[in-house]
Amino acid sequence: MKKVILPELGEGITKATVTYWHFQEGDSLKEGEDLVELATDKATFNLPSSATGKLSKILVEEGVSVEVGSALAEIQE
Amino acid sequence: MKHACNIIDLGKIDYRGAYYLQKRIVEEIKFGLTRETILFCEHSSVITLGRTGKMSNLLGDIEDLKKVGIDFFKVDRGGDITTHEPGQITVYPIFDLKKRNEKDIHLYLNKLQEVIKLTLSDYNIKAEIIDGLTGVWVKKRKIASIGVGISHWITYHGLSVNVNNCLKTFSFVKPCGMDIEMTSLSKELNYEIDIEIFKSKLLDSFFKVFNLRKGVENEKSNFARIR
Q1: Is B12 buried (19+), middle (13-18) or exposed (0-12) by CB count in 10 A?
Q2: B176-207 burial, b for 16+ CB within 10 Å, e for fewer?
Q3: Does the ipTM exceed 0.85?
Q4: B55 exposed, middle or buried (CB, 10 Å; 0-12, 13-18, 19+)?
Q5: Within 10 Å of residue A35's Cβ, how many Cβ atoms?
Q6: Strand, helix or coil at B204?
Q7: The pLDDT value given to residue B216
């Protein structure tokens, strides 16, 4: 199982809001595919999947703000 | 080293057409089929709502807007509500921030603001950046708007500068969800701006701020065919 972590997005950016999940729990996905979109300031940022497998758990719902370094989802490889 | 860049002036193009073109170029860059690209264009009247925008900032009914020729789209860029109309120059820089070793959203937004400030300084306009309010301002009036999207650290969406537009479309929205006055370059200077000269000044500013050079057409790209 691999956790999807919100990476550093830039100096001074400590949080981002999950705005859109491109996949649902149970979906198969490939490494590198856009998995989740987050918004910060005047930008949306699409975070690609860090592994190929099944999206087993979404840990942060759309509309919720999270800190950089937080786990967003779990992927069963 | 300067980054080679394709520069495409799309002229007048509808919002949807320009959007799909950006997404396609993002994919091409992702797979190494083309190089960084800057698209210049002018849109017909359209209101767009960003991902974190509120519908309450649209001051009118979508059907009524369509009757007066104004389109409406919800889009996947950052920011709230904004508008485009003829006479406003919109620029979509499609840059690979990972390849540039500049994986920093704030840095990118600051550079876009710098491009606009530098261009306006050529017209002796002292533009300002207001902390916490992305965009470019002239004496508390907003002259340019910024809203971007990023995928695989490749940018899309971008910036709009009010040049000769009448600003009429802005009366249907609460820009960025705030009570702000919009302005344009022609309004500030009191004369009609030569749009071609403006675009070339804006491009020069991009070259300086983003360390670019004009690239030759990449033969592997399908780009020429989509145009």
Answers
A1: exposed
A2: beeebebbbbbbbeeeebeeeebbebbbebbb
A3: yes
A4: exposed
A5: 23
A6: helix
A7: 61
* Nearest C-alpha in B relative to A34: B151
The long-range contacts involving B128-131, CB below 8 angstroms and separated by at least 24 positions, are none
Residues in chain A: 77
- Residue B187 is predicted with a pLDDT of 98
Residue B181 neighbours by CB under 8 Å, 6+ apart: B140, B141, B142
Measured in degrees and rounded to the nearest 5, phi and psi for residue B214 equal -70, 130
Residue B226 confidence (pLDDT): 39
Distance from CA of B96 to the nearest CA of A (A): 13
> Do B6 and B206 form a contact (C-beta atoms < 8 A)?
no
Pairwise CB contact (< 8 Å): B134 & A20: no
Distances (CA, A) of B119 to A54, B162, B189, B193, B225: 48, 12, 14, 13, 32
Q: Which ranges of chain A have pLDDT less than 50?
A: none
pLDDT of residue A65: 97
Q: Output the pTM of the full model.
A: 0.93
Nearest-by-Cβ selection for B150 from A11, A13, A45: A45
Strands B81-84, B46-49: parallel, antiparallel or unpaired by DSSP?
antiparallel
Measured in Å, how far apart are chain A's first and last C-alpha atoms?
6
Q: Token digits for A59?
A: 């840990």
Do B148 and A19 count as a contact with CB atoms less than 8 A apart? Answer: no
Q: What is the token pair recorded at B25?
A: 């170029």
- Residue B117: in which H helix or E strand, if any? helix B105-121
The full DSSP string for A2-54 is EEEE----STT--EEEEEEESS-TT-EE-TTSEEEEEEETTEEEEEEPSSSEE
- Mean pLDDT per segment of 10 residues, for chain B of length 227 residues? 89 96 96 95 96 92 93 94 97 97 96 98 96 91 96 98 96 88 98 96 96 66 39
Please measure the distance between the N-terminal and C-terminal CA atoms of chain B and give it in whole angstroms: 30
